[in-house]
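Q: what does this look like with flavin-adenine dinucleotide bound?
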Amino acid sequence: MATSETGHRSVETDVVVVGAGIAGLSAGTRLAEHGLDVHVLEARDRVGGRVFNIEFDGQPNELGGQWIAPYQSAAHAMLEDLGIDLFDSYRDGEHVFIGAGGRAQRFEGDAEPLSGDSARAYDEAVERLDKLAAMLDPEAPWDHPDAAEWDAVPFEQWLRTDVRDDLARDLLRAFLAGGFMTKPATSFSLLSGLATVAGAGSVANLFEPDLCLHSRVVGGSQVIPMRLAERLGHDRVHFGAPARGCRYIDDHVTVEADGVTVEARHAIFAVPPNLTARIAWDPPLPPWRMRLEQDISQGSVLKVLAVYDEPFWRADGLSGQAFAPYEFVRELYDNTPPAGAPGVLCTFVAGERCEDAERLDPQARRGAILEGMAAFEGPKALQPVDYVELNWSAEEWTRGAYAATFAVGGLSRFGPDLRRPIGPIHWASSDLAGVGHMHMEGAIRSGQAAADAVLDSRSG
Ligand code: FAD
């Protein structure tokens, strides 16, 4: 590495990875294990991207991704390899459900307290989704013979025609559109919804609390990219170095970032796909790639942590888990650290609710969110000792969350090219993953797959 008089560094390496999220660092460490020299450019001043620790009373918590589900085998393997432990999420006691009438009902187990008709309609709809999703290859949902047809149907239309009960329909919409796609159900297709289910293996894996909320990471999920960066070597990760431009030809790439220029044989751009259009490419990216970038967009989500001296709801027999498809605050979880204090409640205000929240001034927003928490857990929720919110759409280097997905019709048109390399340039992101799509699991798999593709291209 050479440094000029102005402090600008110049690096020559085998592979330049852009983005020190879990995908980029999974790619970088795998390449380094195979003996390649790797440098990682990161726009932020920290690793992790969409996983981001915060501390309350010295106890780690998370403002980004946090839960690991049992089916997520790549994540479990990586945690074991890195010597990171999991702990069970706290879900003991009664959960709370608020339906159309606005009355809080306590219940136990995983099924919301629905009437017989609504419960049957909900179960039938889930069965239908599972059956359709099982017909897809999660790595290539666009290959199914009916893919274009399913991609032409907005998920909202499928809900209206195929789910005959209002509450069952509203619940499913809140779970899939609000809880995962973080976009209105009118804006993504049945195929996109099915692909997300297929990527998790089943509806239950994707959003049954016992499975999807199963475990959390000791030390907070950001320890995963921190350990990966340690393994790679801190001198290999350049912070405050957003890639602004990329010149590429056959087997040579030059990435110009703030403060550093890297020349390499290969590049892996491990940034969310909605951001790649902001880089000045020379030559310009092929037309199919520029069209793809214009069709894929992040959802919107505000994550909120409200902190209390202790988890007061537990003494009242409550788990801290709650759901209310019609309310401003639709979901709630106990995010208290394993030490048992301080008490932390966590919610996500997603999709149209996030956009509504942005229209409120900060005090009114905080008030509305705490009111929503109090509707589940009682008036003590109104008096947190600390309150933190992060709007992921305001993050310059993500611009939304949980993941970028295509508009109606986009997955079948652009999906086949989603991971297609361009000369020496490869792509990685949880948003490009099949299995583990939009989760840390997908970020790991996608990063490792991009690294394997680089290794293959060298041996070919
Ligand atoms: P990112 O984490 O986005 O990493 C990309 C990196 O690239 C970032 O560090 C960014 O700063 C950097 N970058 C961007 N542009 C440039 C540039 N031009 N130059 C250099 N660097 C650049 N997943 C789960 O598994 N479980 C959960 O419970 C869960 N909950 C979530 C809750 C929230 C609020 C959020 C935001 C996400 C959640 N996720 C969850 C999703 C999960 O966090 C992400 O899917 C995963 O972390 C994405 O990893 P990545 O490496 O693909 O992308």
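The longest helix spans residues 440-459. The chain has a mean pLDDT of 97.
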